Give the backbone structure.
Amino acid sequence: MSRAQTVRAYLKAIEQRKDLTAFYTRDVVQEEFPNLLSPAGARREFADLKAAGKRGQNVLKSESYEIVSLVEAGEVVACEILWRGVLAVGLRSLKPGDEMRARFAAFFEFDGDKIRRQRNYDCFEPF
């Protein structure tokens, strides 16, 4: 499987609420740069990613990732993603059942066939 195919499978696994640990190296680091939901940004390691995934499933009924563009260059895959999430709970001006939208730029660095580093630049529509 190419790295691009791995990223596509990873995003599909998030949508399907599957366990993501098989996609990561044990020393994985995910960085989320400041945005409307995380004004200070976030840095997550392996255990943090598992916990964050569980929290997200409590906030969202569903989510989808539409890849707008994808570039694979050696050990790196870069994606522009249109994200949609249907809320399970209220958030600011949104009610349960409302849809949030964002455009993400995500950069995945690989070690072999696993994600070792992920950087997200998330741009949420106002809510």
Remarks:
- Residues 3-124 form a domain with the Nuclear Transport Factor 2; Chain: A, fold (CATH 3.10.450.50).
- The mean pLDDT is 95.
- The first helix runs from residue 3 to 15.
